[in-house]
Structure formats: structure tokens, C-alpha cells
TrEMBL record:
PANTHER family: 6-PHOSPHO-BETA-GLUCOSIDASE ASCB-RELATED, GLYCOSYL HYDROLASE. Keywords: Glycosidase, Hydrolase. It comes from Orenia marismortui. One of its GO terms (cellular component) is cytosol. Transmembrane segments: none annotated. The keyword Iron does not apply. This is 6-phospho-beta-glucosidase.
Length: 477
């Protein structure tokens, strides 16, 4: 392809992405209630604790709560057009089922949005990013209980009304398809996963799908200018071999993720899911009111992309790859990161085409990045920095494939790199797995000054944004 640099459209929303539970800190300040993350100190596979413990890095995060002005100024220095963040539900409704919101929590986000506006940075706000209020989890069994739809509606009405003139772009649930694999993290389900039936999982998911559609309906009523999207974890599945049964298995595995976007974009359950439910004796409680609500479809589809996966029908070869946390076989043709996540830039082009031509709705890449062990050094000018050429190469390679997808005809709204400032990993709850353009002086033992330092990639991304992508095709330095 020639002249790739012209393929990012004018007004493309370049930026970065975060989540409240991974970087805000201040877990018990100004009236905030506990979330499920506050007793989840070791990440996805580490299990829960009875109460918050000092070894939970997320309790302090990187202290964005007290340093938001400094951090937003750094984002502005890079030229961000948008900043993806989440609202901590338990900062607004400490127990989730409270009758009135916590004013101090609302005031905090007012200040954040005002600070972003000062630099003309559009907030992209996730309503629920893996942080169900803990009381809703313990007292109601999380989203397994239909009552959470009403509690969520109260929450979204509150924030939509409060910020209707400050936020235009919204996402409902982060990586909603992860609920099928991690019901506590994804949906606050207190019952251990091994005691949940497949029917329980899909009923839980149904409640979230209805709540998401209800949020779209409510949001458009409060401000018709709102652009409200869903968000899925995007992992395309390739057949391990050309064997037809492997191809069919890849199709089935893709559908396990695409089902969520199908409902959000088309307003009803696809027939292949009805077959799955019938063949597995799953009978969901789906009311007529639910069916009407689901017709309120999203304005755009957003997704995270970190890796692809392979599918096989051969049980002897069906061995989960080290970093494939939703299952899947490692691809023998790909290299992997330090955490076993396979690196596949072309997979991003593939999934962009897959999603766009399936739904014909605008897309938004809201997470993509490389977690790595970064080494803080002092350069010749006595400035502390990180020479993260590996991160620059990773992002450059992926963004070149994004440009290819745009040339393919994909309508793409923007791109936000995950963890634009170092934060606490969701999967492992550690800080040494760093994603950011900005190094944060904090370590897994809790030590550190919390000072911020610009990495080499900081200046690279600043150049990408300033050129609207032109420097990508010159290659990294």
C-alpha cells in the first residue's frame, strides 16, 4: 500500500486508556465504598480475601485521585485527543443499592472532566470496568441477580444527568464477554464459579445485556448527542490447521465472543445461541420487556485487542497457550511477550474487518498495548527515562495494521493504548508489568515515590498524534 499516512481520518481520536480500580487509589476516601477489586489482591487467578489487605496494590494504585492534574497535563503534552477512563460505581453509590449518590464522588469526576476540558481532551467513560460494588456482590450475588439492573439504572441516570454536558462518549461494560470465564471479576458473582451452572452464567450475562441496552435507552433520552458503545474483549480465533473440523471449531470459538456484540449491535439473540441453549437444556428468564429493551442498540462497537488464538477439534492438541486466558491454543508462528501473550499485529487488522463488515457500525480500539519489565535509567541529560524501543515497535506494528484496515474500508473512530500511564495489572495485580508511556515510581512491594517520568515512547506517541499517524510508516528509530 502507498501513502498510508493519509489513511487516519481527520479528527481521529488518539489517546490512552485506564480503569479506576487500577490507577485511582484512594479506595476508602471521601465516602467511597468497597468494590470487588478491593479484596482481589492477586489478580484474576489469585482469589479473594475477607477484607482489603496491604498487599493489594490497587488500594493505592498510582494515586491518580490526588495527582489527576499532573497526569492530565502529561496526557495533554502528548497531544491526547481523548482519554478513556472509568467511573468507580462504588465512589458514586458506595453500596450500590443506596437511595442517594455520594456527592463527593460526583465532585471528583466533575474536577477530572473539567481538567480534561481545559486541554480539549474528550473523555471516553466506561460505566462499569470490573469494579462492581462489593456490597452488591455479597448481598445480591452480583449480576446473577436481576435486581442489579435497577441499581445500575439508578447509577447511570445519575452520572448521565450529572455529566451530560461534559462527556459525549460512553461505554457500558468493560470486556463484557469476560463474564463467561471470570464471573466474579466480570459480574461480581459471589458464588464460586465451580458452583455455577452454564445456565447461571448465561442468565447473569443476560442481565448485563439488558442493563447495557437500558443504559443506551436512558442515555439517549437524557442527551441525544451521546455516543454510547459496548466493549468486548477481542480475540480472533484462527483454525490451527486447514482441517474442516478445526475451521468449524474456530467459528464456534469466535461466536462465543461475537455473541455479545451481536446482541448489542442487532438488538436480539442470534439463532446460533438459541441452538446452543436448546442443545444444552438452558432456559433463560427473558421477559417481553427485556426483548424490547434489547432493541436499543449501541452507536458503536469498541474492543480491546492484545492477542489472537488458535482453535482445534483435536483434544490431543487442545492445550491452552500460556497467555491465552480465555482458552485457545498457542499459534506456532507467533512470538510472545514476557507474560506469554502472543504478538500478532495482523490479527488487529483481521478483527477490525471482521467486526466492521459484520455490523456496519463505527469501531473504536479502546485497549491495545504491551506489558513489559521496564528499566528506569538516567540519560545523558540526567533525566530518568526508559528506553522502551520494544514498546514502540509493538505499537508501531499494530498501528500500521490499523491503517491497513482503514484502507480496507473500516470506519474507525479512534485508538487508545492501554495503560498510557503505568498502572496495576488486572490479570496479575502487579506493577512490574508496565504498559505506559509514563513510568510511575512504584513497585510491587509498595515502595516508591510515585514520581512520574517520560519514557522514550512518550515522545514517539507525541509524534504519532502530531502527525496523525504519518511517522508510523517511517519506522521506529
Amino acid at each position: 500500500m502507498s501513502n498510508l499516512e493519509s489513511k487516519f481520518p481527520p479528527g481521529f481520536l488518539w489517546g490512552g486508556a485506564t480503569a479506576a480500580n487500577q490507577f485511582e487509589g484512594a479506595y476508602n476516601e471521601d465516602g467511597k465504598g468497597l468494590s470487588i477489586q478491593d479484596i482481589y489482591p492477586k489478580g484474576i487467578k489469585g482469589g479473594r480475601t475477607a477484607r482489603p489487605t496491604e498487599d493489594n496494590m490497587k488500594l493505592v494504585g498510582i494515586d491518580f485521585y490526588h495527582r489527576y492534574k499532573e497526569d492530565i497535563a502529561l496526557f495533554a503534552e502528548m497531544g491526547f485527543k481523548t482519554f478513556r477512563m472509568s467511573i468507580a460505581w462504588s465512589r458514586i453509590f458506595p453500596n450500590g443499592d443506596d437511595s442517594e449518590p455520594n456527592e463527593k464522588g460526583l465532585e471528583f469526576y466533575d474536577k477530572v472532566f473539567d481538567e480534561l476540558a481545559k486541554y480539549d481532551i474528550e473523555p471516553l467513560v466506561t460505566l462499569s470496568h470490573y469494579e462492581t460494588p462489593l456490597a452488591l456482590s455479597k448481598n445480591y450475588d452480583g449480576w446473577k441477580n436481576r435486581k442489579l439492573i435497577d441499581f445500575f439504572e439508578r447509577y447511570v441516570r445519575t452520572v448521565f444527568t450529572r455529566y451530560k454536558d461534559k462527556v459525549k462518549y460512553w461505554l457500558t461494560f468493560n470486556e463484557i464477554n469476560s463474564t463467561l470465564h471470570y464471573p466474579y471479576m466480570g459480574a461480581g458473582v459471589w458464588t464460586p464459579k465451580e458452583r455455577l451452572s452454564t445456565e447461571d452464567l448465561y442468565q447473569t450475562i443476560h442481565h448485563k445485556l439488558v442493563a447495557s441496552a437500558l443504559a443506551v435507552k436512558v442515555g439517549h433520552e437524557i442527551n441525544p448527542e451521546f455516543k454510547i458503545g459496548c466493549m468486548i474483549l477481542g480475540i480472533p480465533n484462527y483454525p490451527l490447521t486447514p482441517k474442516p473440523s478445526d475451521v468449524i471449531q474456530a467459528m464456534q470459538d469466535d461466536r462465543q465472543n461475537l455473541f455479545f456484540a451481536d446482541v448489542h449491535a442487532r438488538g436480539e439473540y442470534p439463532k446460533y445461541m438459541k441452538r446452543l441453549f436448546k442443545e444444552n437444556n438452558i432456559e433463560l428468564n427473558i421477559t417481553n420487556e427485556d426483548k424490547e429493551l434489547l432493541k436499543h442498540t449501541v452507536d458503536f462497537i469498541s474492543f480491546s485487542y492484545y492477542m489472537s488464538s488458535c482453535s482445534t477439534s483435536d483434544p490431543e492438541k487442545d492445550i491452552q497457550g500460556e497467555g491465552n486466558f480465555l482458552g485457545g491454543v498457542a499459534n506456532p508462528h507467533l512470538e510472545a511477550s514476557d507474560w506469554g501473550w502472543q504478538i500478532d499485529p495482523e490479527g488487529l487488522r483481521y478483527i477490525l474487518n471482521q467486526l466492521y463488515y459484520r455490523y456496519q457500525k463505527p469501531l473504536f480500539i479502546v485497549e491495545n498495548g504491551l506489558g513489559a519489565n521496564d528499566e528506569l535509567i538516567t540519560d545523558e541529560n540526567e533525566n530518568k527515562t526508559v528506553n522502551d524501543d520494544y514498546r514502540i515497535k509493538y505499537l508501531n506494528d499494530h498501528l500500521v495494521q490499523v491503517a491497513e484496515a482503514i484502507e480496507d474500508g473500516v470506519e474507525l473512530m479512534g485508538y487508545t493504548t492501554w495503560g498510557c500511564i503505568d498502572l496495576v495489572s488486572n490479570s496479575t495485580a502487579e506493577l512490574r508489568k508496565r504498559y505506559g508511556f509514563i513510568y510511575v515510581d512504584r513497585y510491587d512491594d509498595g515502595s516508591g515515590t510515585l514520581e512520574r517520568y517520560r519514557k522514550k515512547s512518550f515522545y514517539w506517541y507525541k509524534g504519532v498524534i502530531a502527525s496523525n499517524g504519518q511517522i508510523l510508516f517511517e519506522g521506529p528509530e
